[in-house]
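User: Hey, my collaborator sent me this sequence without any context and asked if I could get a structure. I don't really work with proteins. Can you help?
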Amino acid sequence: MEERKLLRILGNKDVLALAFGAMIGWGWVVTTGLWITEAGSLGAILAFAIGGLLVVVVGLTYAELSSALPLAGGEHVYTYKAMGRTASFIATWAIILGYVSVVAFEAVALPTVFEYLIPDYSQGYLYTIAGWDVTATWAGVGILGSVLVAWINYRGIKLTTAITFILTLLILIAGLMLITGSTAGGNAQNMQPFFEKGIAGLLTVIIMTPFMFVGFDVIPQAAEEINLPQKKIGQLLIGSVILAVVWYVAVIFGVSRVLSPAEISESNLVTADAMAKAFGDSQMMGNLLVLGGIGGILTSWIGFYVGGSRAIYALARAGMLPKSLGELHPKYNTPHRAILLIGVFSTIAPLLGRPSLVWLVDAGGLGLVVAWLMVAISFIILRKKSPEMKRPFRLRGGTTIGWIAVVMSGGITILYMPGMPSALIWPYEWVIVGAWVILGIILYKFSIVKYGKAYSDEHMKKEIDRVA
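Assistant: No problem. I've predicted the 3D structure and written it out in C-alpha cell form, which is a compact way to encode the shape of the chain:
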C-alpha cells in the first residue's frame, strides 16, 4: 500500500498570504501602544528595524535551506543534516513552543478584542490570575474560537489557505486605512517623547519582535505542500519578511502621530482609537479596524496550526515523537492528531486570562530565537560540510550572512536570560519554558527507546535523498 502524503497544491498567493497573514496576526492591533509606551515612538520604530534586520538575515538562511531541502518540518531537516538527531529535536521542539505560544496567544487575544466591540460582555466570575478576573463568557469566546480554527485546519490545506487569503485582504484594507489616515491626520508633536526608558525600553521591545515576526518559517514547514519551483520558495519567504517589517514600522509611525502619549496610556485598544480619531472620531472606523484585527487573529491562528502541526508531523514520522502524531487523515490528508494536540493547548489558554498574553509572547519568543540560532549554525555547517548540495536559492556572500544571523539571534537569546533588563518573568514565563523542556525530554526519550535511533537515521536519510 502506497504511503499517504501531504497534498502539493499551494501556489504563489497561497504561500504569501499564509506567511504574511501568520506574521502580521493580531499583535499590531493589541500591543502597538505597549511598544510606544515602553520605548517611545522612534524607539519602537528602531526596535522593530533592529528586530526586522535580524529576521531578514535569519530569513535569508532559511530561504537557501528551504529551497535546497523542501521537506515538511523545515528546521527539523536542516539541523538534522547539519548536526544530527538530538540537535534536530531541540531546534524543532523550540520552534513548536513558539508556534504553540502564538496559537495560545490568539486564543487569548480573541476575547480581548470582543471587549472593544461589545463592552461589558465579560460575565460569570470564575477565579483570579495575576490580579486579573477570568470570567465564563470571556474564556468561552476564546475556547469557541479555538474549536473553530482547529476544525478549519482539520479539514485540509485547501480550505485553510482559501480562508487565509480572504482574511489577509481584510487585514490589508483596514491596516492601510489606519496607516494613511493617521499619518495624514496626525502631527509630529504627538510623537514625543521619541525615546522612552533608554536602552532598557529599547531592549524590552526588541525581545518582543521575534514573536511578532514569526510566520515566515511557516513556509518551510509546509514545503511539501507548495507546488512551485524550489527557488521561488526562497524568494517568497524573503518577500513576506520585508513586507512585515514595512507594515509594523508604518503602523507604529501612524499611531504615534495621531494619538498623544496620554491618549495612548488611557486607551484599551490604541490602533482602533487611532483609526477612529484619524477619521473624525468615527466609531465605525474604529470597529472596521477591529474587524481587520479579528481577521489578523484568524490568519495567524490558522497559519501557526499549519506550522506547528507540520513540525510535529515531521518529528513523529522520524520516530522522535509518538508515530501516531505523524498519521495523515484518510480523507483530508492533514496531520489530524497533531492538529488536535495543538487544539488542546489552544483551548486551555483562555483559562489563563489576559495576563498570559505577555507570558506567551516572551516564552514563545525564546523558543523561536533558539530555533533561528540553530538554523543559522546549520546553514554555516552545511556550506562547509555539503558544498555540493543543490541550492536553487543560493545566497551571495557565503557564510558571512550565516555568521551575522548567528551573532544577532544569539545576542537576542541572551536578552531573555536572568540578570538582563528584559529577562523572562519569574515564575510565569520560566514555568512555561521549563514545563515545555521537561515534556520534550520525556517524549524524546520515550520515542527513541520505542522506535530506536536507527529508525530515525534511516528515515531522515531516505527523505533527504529524495530531494537531493
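In plain terms: The mean pLDDT is 90. You can pass these C-alpha cells on to your collaborator as they are.
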